[in-house]
Amino acid sequence: MWRTPPVRYAISGAMELWSAIIGLTSGATTHVTADINNLSSSQSYTGPDAVHIADVATIFSKFRERIENLLSAKIKIFQCDGGTEFKQIMTHHTDITYRMSCPYTPEQNGMAERKHRHIVELGLANMFHADIPLKYWDYIFESAVFVINRLPNSITGLISPFECLFKQQPQYSFLHVLGCSCYPWLRPYAQHKLEHRSEICVFLGYSTVYKGYYCLEMKSGRMYVTRHVKFDETHLPFKSQEENSSPEPIPFSTTAVLTVLPSEPITPEPLQQQQQFPLLSPHTPAVQQHVQPQQQATNSTQNMDQTAPTHTMLTRAKTNKLKSKTFPDHQIYNSEQSKSAVFEPTSYTQASKFACWRLAMANELTALAKNNTWELVPPPENSHIIRAKWLFKTKLKADGSIERHKARLVAKGYSQQEGIDYYETFCPVIKPTTIRVVLTIALSKKWAIKQLDVNNAFLHGDLEEDVYMEQPPGFVDPTFPSYICKLRKALYGLKQAPRAWFSKLKTFLLAHKFVSAQSDHSLFILQTSTVIIYLLVYVDDIIITGNNDAAIQEIMHSLDNHFSIKNLGDLNYFLGIEVTHQNNSLHLSQTRYLKSILHRASMTGAKPCQTPMQTGVQMSKYSGTAMDDPQLYRFIVGALQYATITRPDLQFAVNKASQFMAVPTDNHWQLVKRILRYINGTLNHGLHLKPSAELALHAYCDADWAGCPDDRRSTTGYAIYLGHNLVSWSSKKQATVSRSSTEAEYRSMAVTASELTWLISLLSELKVNSTQKPTLWCDNLGATFLASNPVFHARIKHIELDFHFVREKVVNKELYIQYICSMDQIGDVFTKSLAKSRFTMLRDKLHVSENTPSLRGAVNEELSSEMEKSSTG
């Protein structure tokens, strides 16, 4: 069947405004007026009827009959504004309670107003996308309502309003792009067999009366309603008409022009008069481009484009509540610098509009040219050319303030081919346990701890392979535009770049009499008769400490001459870890990092709880229904893994959550939310390190038995102390099933002994010798007897031989095994969920405490200084 689009004129009220703007109206008016009030029901389902405002009373009567018949429930409350059209409803339907918003107070009817806007915006977006004429707006708005009713939303628990009402999931396979070309089957409409079986039409939406599509035949203006349609969603007829009727575009040159990057905003000039920025040509050595000093970066921030957007507009949510204004701590909204702080460009085009980012790119290119990173060559035949990209990052200080704006040219290494562009990629980094051990030694011996950062570290690595890359985006050499860069040095993004940089640094340190530790290859040790220096490397971040400040300064000077380093002073912010110095002790925390996790999970305002896990609850991988967004679960749990570097109190809960990464369910997500609530109440907590007179190792190991309800495997947990400080801990499910609690504890003891053996080797290389042998505390008598004597042979004959090396350590007196009662077992916190009192007690023994630096020292210093001034005065 077909019908001509209805033309109806407004009578009064809001319809007069729509008529004046659009020129005609149609039955779609209901979707922006009266029938929207059915949103007051618990299921937000927008009615599909087309009405005039003058017909509200009649339509509401029909709507009431339909909804009460559908839901077998009575309408009790009717929410509306003060429109006169609703007075007829009040007169005829006296058994309903009416609620009206105050005059000129639309926010009191927020749900209807928000849905009104939702429908209008979706309808207009569909029209503008396909350039559909305004006279068809009723069909488009009707289709918008049709789609909205089938979209999951947060109000209905991420299910669609359609499913709420009809208890079945809607079908999405029949949805198509509005305004696209379609070909309806027209044989039934043909007057004879020689007519076309179909004509090209425009798809204008879905019929709510017929189970079919609206198809507009543009030549005759007929509107067909049919279910037999073929769609071509790549072709938009109305848009094609406008493009064909538009004037010819003005041709422009796409040749990239290379320009200087000044610290002031660029004024448009003729292309022939722009100064060109030289890159490395095939006939000249590396060119050093003059740029302004780095200290001008802060001032240049104020000269950025004033028209750039500074924030994203916040809109009212569908729940009739305003969105919470949660901003990152480092964003300073009351200054001009906030424009660059908030906005981190994603491309050269965006970055070129800001003076601070232009200067950052200039500094990066200068460093590349100074380092002789590449040479321009003609593209070799059959060569694999890697593309390049600009990355931009606002570097922050520990307090969240802006340190500098960093631009980095990177290679798109994901396109590299193994065996052609690279061979080996492994690069060692310092272990967190090694960092804690070195910090403990430095504190105990009262050594200064310095922090260094290598500028453009990866650019110092030498490449062994022939790697070709395109010229930097926005900086193509106009003399040789078709040439490519043959890389001489490693570049960020290359798969082999970390390995090449570490090899270069290692060669330099070995030449300066450092020795690479065998227990941790990123630890370098310099020892002479009077000097001992430790140097820890994590990619381009370096910690250096030792007993001779002059020797440390000499090493830092040599590093600066060879690589160009930045001396960051005393250790205060390393790899996202905030280091606070407190009365000859250190407090390691990750407050800012944890806040970012809470923000990502939308739990910044969550109610805090006292423990990370609820007691008495066994988590199974089969419990609950699958999450709609498993990526969020994996992201949050992965981020929490890094947080355990300074938060051993989170280790067991995070390890438990990590076991459900494959198919997380809503029950597992509740576990993660519990962890986040605990974090929200302990944001300032961290690991406390203090000096120790005796640097001896002692450890606590524990295991539950068959704690996993799915595979009945046990969990191993241990805590190892160096002196007073906790330096190593773990919570991990065992690889095999244990037949008894003794076996589970014995396996845990073996794992702990392995870690102790590695720590003994590390301390030996660090030249730290203790008169005391390591002690391992276990709360299972059977396991302690088994470690000392080959008892219970019938129960342990199936245990792998490598676990029996514990007995060998005990026989050789390299390890002491001692029994400890379960109440004093610190390892309990790594194997099971605990009640508040016991958890808090064990957390204190882990030396996890709140960062509350005392102001008493500062106050005393201030008072003494004032007293000196008064006495001298």
TrEMBL record:
Pfam family for this entry, one: SH3_retrovirus
Residues covered by the Integrase catalytic domain: 1-169
Molecular-function GO term, any one: nucleic acid binding
CDD domains attached to this UniProt entry: RNase_HI_RT_Ty1
GO biological process, one term: DNA integration
PANTHER family for the chain: GAG-POL-RELATED RETROTRANSPOSON, RLK (RECEPTOR-LIKE PROTEIN KINASE) 8, PUTATIVE-RELATED
Protein name: Integrase catalytic domain-containing protein
Annotated organism of origin: Rhynchospora breviuscula
